[in-house]
Design goal:
Blueprint (H helix, E strand, L loop, with lengths): L1 H36 L5 E7 L5 E2 L3 E10 L5 E10 L5 E5 L4 E4 L3 E10 L6 E8 L4 E9 L5 E2 L4 E6 L7 H7 L9 E6 L18 E5 L5 H4 L2 H12 L3 E5 L4 H7 L1 H4 L4 E7 L5 H6 L16 E6 L3 E5 L9 E8 L2 E6 L14 H12 L15 H4 L4 H9 L10 H25 L6 H22 L6 E11 L4 E12 L3 E9 L6 E10 L23 E4 L4 E7 L3 E13 L5 E5 L6 E6 L6 E8 L2 E4 L3 E2 L4 E3 L8 E2 H7 L19 H9 L1 H4 L2 H4 L19 E8 L6 E8 L7 E13 L12
Parallel strand pairs: 2-10, 5-24, 11-12, 11-13, 13-14, 14-19, 20-36
Antiparallel strand pairs: 1-3, 3-7, 4-5, 4-6, 4-8, 8-9, 15-16, 17-18, 18-19, 20-21, 21-26, 22-25, 22-35, 23-26, 24-25, 27-28, 28-32, 29-30, 29-31, 29-34, 30-33, 34-36
Helix pairs in contact: 10-14, 11-12
């Protein structure tokens, strides 16, 4: 009884004291956090990640800041963004635009750009006061914030009024592997000022939809934002543009978006034949036009592209309703009416029309087609063909990689020796206590075996494998480059890289380079979709968006790191081509000159489903008559699946996800959909899908493709300083050129969508 009362009495005395201590600790902790963060009540900061919180892993995404200064003095500081890369190592993103000055009683907006790595993802954003050199605002986004999409997901971004699209139907139609790819439709119906002001801010977007009838949309988009959309299209983006009522205004008064329209728009009409659109949508009811805004039709005179649909599907057709055209290295589907306005908004066939437009504007692979004979991704460790490209870049001459089976076999033997074998032998001799000796001896022996294996493996100095793919649109003089590199390091070290501009290919200007780490899509070992809390190296490095530098990126002992860069430029390359189609057969005819001052090897011309081989060497400035190549021309699918090395004529060549040459992988990525896509390889092509120029071959364009010598490039990764003071890294570079060429064709009303 006494003890019970004593305990009870002590508890009563201790309870207020405990509460007081806890309260003081909470106050102290809160004060410590405030002091550490240096939070300023006069500075209000709002941060938006991606597109209203939606973004993709492994791609560039926008981060929008709104900073309001409620104090009476100027605030000068900088925005700091940090996020782990594909291996969990923290990256700090540096950009000149992140330096800010906010006057009193003023709101300043900035858009920064980052790449988010593996799961569990996180982004830390902070505002640092230049005077106090400490953060006055800090916020961390993480997996609990949701919004993160897989690297291979299909993102449709709607700007303007929301359209009745069906994600479930598009899921089955837009990809060959709906089990691996999710279609996500994200709408931006307001806050247009939060949209990216640089073209790579749309890198995560697979299809951009703009409804120009949305109230004040064109007025709220800044000139820089509109230019970003235009440049993104020219760099390979795809857009569905609806411009009925505001078509003439867009065509005549808007320099950026107006240049994306494939023709001239003089005026609008409100009375037009609707039989074509009714048949296109398999409508059960007529579309009744009225004086409502949605009845307006922009009268476009197409100057380029393919007229997909006219007002009627007979000889009496007058007006083009849908035109699909190439713009730079991308494509635009122009629609001359507004489906978000009445009478379309309440018409039953509108959703079917919109879904059909989305599917065909992206030249989607059909989901009901069977996956071909290519190796399954589960056996290769990746689901996307970019993983195969990365694996091919991991192979270095003079380096024998440590095989997983070697490690697994040695580990299995070790477990067998220290477990059942040790127990069986010692028990037989009745000396179980000797395990205190045999156990450390076994550890020592297997450690020596492991060290001997590593020492026996061939190593080499630090080295780098690179691929550069240079694409040129001869009409707009748009140039883009895609660089992929893997660096090997024999020791644990930190390296710095920059993109060096070469001057021995052709003249170009207005270069902008963006370099960063390269992710590994999928949930395999080291993949972006695989959750891992283990970080092998505790070392932060920088990615500079201003000059395309990567500073102090760590590479572990006998390990590799993958890098990627995209760059854009304007070209003055003179391309002499006179390509036409034969009216009867549609075959390619005409002449083409090699526009470069160097030879192209294994050169091909691709057009409308066919390949025209130019031989082993297409000599500098030489001219070829395409008619002379007709006898050797082949269907694209046949050429790449039957007439490559490793297959006999008429013998189907099975795709091997673990054993294809680097050159073969690159060519598959260049024209993936035309060669068969996922049906042939068994792999997605989502992570670096901009490399696929298959859509150009269906839009009155031919593509000249060939390999150049190692010296004839535009840019390449060059190693700078190294933490351990080592010299420059030897590099092996494979360079590919593609030139997109216009083809004059007979006028045709054939549609792509029927």
């Amino acid at each position: 009884m006494f003890l019970g009362r004593r305990v009870k009495s002590d508890w009563r005395i201790a309870s207020p004291l405990a509460v007081l201590v806890i309260a003081l600790l909470c106050v102290f902790a809160n004060s410590a956090d405030t002091f550490a963060g240096g939070e300023d009540a006069n500075l209000q900061v709002e941060v938006t990640l991606g597109f209203n919180g939606r973004f993709k892993q492994g791609t560039w995404i926008p981060v929008h800041f709104e900073i309001t200064n409620d104090s009476a003095v100027d605030f000068q500081g900088q925005l700091v963004l940090e996020s782990p890369d594909g291996e969990g190592i923290v990256v700090r993103f540096v950009d000149r635009q992140l330096q800010i000055t906010v006057p009193p009683a003023t709101t300043v907006t900035r858009t920064a750009y980052i790449k988010i790595g593996r799961l569990p993802w996180s982004v830390e954003v902070s505002v640092v006061d230049d005077t106090r050199q400490q953060a006055v605002f800090k916020e961390t986004f993480g997996r609990l914030d949701d919004g993160q999409l897989s690297t291979t997901d299909f993102l449709i971004l709607q700007i303007g009024n929301r359209l009745p699209l069906s994600a479930s139907r598009l899921q089955a139609e837009l990809t060959g592997r709906p089990d691996l790819v999710e279609v996500v439709i994200q709408s931006q119906t307001s806050d247009y000022h939060k949209l990216p002001d640089r073209w790579y801010g749309y890198a995560a977007v697979d299809l951009l939809i703009i409804t120009t009838s949305a109230e004040d949309l064109l007025e709220q988009l800044s000139a820089q934002q509109q230019q970003a959309i235009r440049q993104w299209i020219y760099q390979g983006g795809r857009m569905l543009l609806f411009a009925g009522q505001r078509g003439p205004e867009l065509s005549q008064d808007n320099e950026a978006l107006g240049s994306l329209i494939p023709g001239k728009i003089d005026r609008i009409i409100t009375n037009w034949n609707t039989s074509g659109i009714e048949k296109f949508g398999n409508a059960d009811e007529r579309l009744i036009l009225s004086r409502q805004p949605g009845s307006s039709l922009s009268l476009i005179t197409p100057a380029d592209g393919v007229v997909v649909l006219r007002d009627t599907q007979n000889a009496q057709a007058e007006h083009a309703l849908i035109v699909h055209s190439a713009r730079g290295l991308g494509s635009v589907t122009f629609v001359a009416f507004d489906p978000d306005q009445e009478p379309f908004a309440s018409w039953g066939a509108t959703p079917a029309i919109l879904n059909r437009l989305v599917i065909n504007s992206h030249f989607a692979e059909r989901g009901n087609e069977q996956v071909g004979k290519g190796s399954k991704s589960s056996n290769a460790g990746f689901d996307d063909i970019s993983g195969q490209l990365r694996s091919s870049l991991d192979r270095f001459d003079g380096v024998t990689p440590t095989r997983f089976m070697w490690v697994a076999g040695l580990l299995g033997m070790f477990i067998l020796v220290i477990g059942p074998l040790d127990y069986y032998i010692l028990r037989r001799f009745k000396r179980l206590h000797w395990t205190w000796v045999t156990f450390p001896v076994a550890i020592l022996i297997f450690s020596l075996i492991a060290v001997s294996m590593v020492s026996a493996l061939r190593t080499s100095p630090a080295a780098m494998n690179q691929i550069e793919i240079i694409d040129i649109d001869s009409l707009t003089q748009t140039v883009r480059g895609s660089n992929y590199a893997t660096v090997y390091s024999p020791t644990t070290a930190a390296y710095s890289f920059e993109m060096s501009e070469l001057s021995n290919s052709f003249h170009s200007e207005n270069h902008h380079v963006l370099a960063c780490w390269q992710g590994f899509p999928g949930a395999g070992l080291g993949g972006l979709g695989r959750t891992s809390f283990q970080v092998l190296i505790d070392h932060q490095y920088e990615v500079d968006l201003t000059d395309g530098q990567i500073r102090s990126i760590p590479v572990q002992h006998s390990g590799t790191r993958s890098l990627a860069a995209r760059w854009s430029a304007d070209s003055s390359l003179v391309v002499n081509s006179a390509l036409v189609t034969e009216p009867a057969s549609g075959a390619l005819r005409g002449t083409l000159q090699n526009p470069f001052d160097f030879d192209l090897h294994e050169a091909l011309i691709l057009f409308d489903g066919r390949v025209y081989p130019l031989g082993q060497v297409f000599t500098s400035k030489s001219e070829v008559n395409v008619y002379d190549l007709s006898a050797d021309s082949q269907g694209i699918d046949n050429y790449f699946t039957r007439y490559q090395s490793g297959s006999r004529r008429q013998s189907y060549r099975v795709w091997r996800a673990t054993d294809e040459s680097r050159d073969r992988v690159v060519k598959q990525m260049m024209f993936n959909q035309e060669i068969g896509g996922v049906r042939y390889t068994g792999l997605l092509h989502r992570y670096q899908s901009h490399l696929d120029l298959s859509h150009m071959l269906r839009l009155r364009r031919a593509v000249l493709v060939g390999k150049a010598g190692q010296r004839h490039g535009m840019t390449e990764f060059v190693s700078g300083s190294q933490q351990d003071g080592g010299g420059p890294i030897a590099s092996q570079v494979d360079r590919y050129y593609r030139v997109v060429l216009p083809v004059n064709m007979e006028a045709s009303t054939n549609t792509l969508l029927n």
